[in-house]
Amino acid sequence: MEKLGPIPNLEQIKQRIRDNVCPYCGSEDREYNEVEIDAKEARQITSCGKCGNHWTDVYIFYKVILSDAPEGQEFRVRMTESDPANLYSER
To answer: Which phi and psi angles does 22 have, rounded to 5°?
Structure first.
């Protein structure tokens, strides 16, 4: 599929990402590949069915909920260079 047009300006890209549409052309026709997960993040290559461009969505790990603990204890993750998976309790 032929890629259409130039890359939009930064503000258009930001708005399209917020709207969960193709950051290149604004189409809702997205095709998702499998999610690849490692210890810190998950990545998913996504392509546009309209313009043919592709990008990678990156999801950052930030919270663990202990479902079987009293009151569903939550731990959030602070990513720092010295300790990339520093867990701390919200309570």
So the answer is: -55, 125
pLDDT in tens, the chain (91 residues): 556 567 788 899 899 999 999 999 999 999 999 999 987 889 999 999 999 999 999 988 777 777 776 766 776 666 555 555 554 444 4
Structural tokens at position 17 = 């990402």
DSSP string, 39-85: SSEEEEEEEETTT--EEEEEEE--EEE-TTSGGG-EEEEE--SS-TT
Supply 54's token pair. Answer: 């592709």
Q: What is the pTM of this model?
A: 0.64
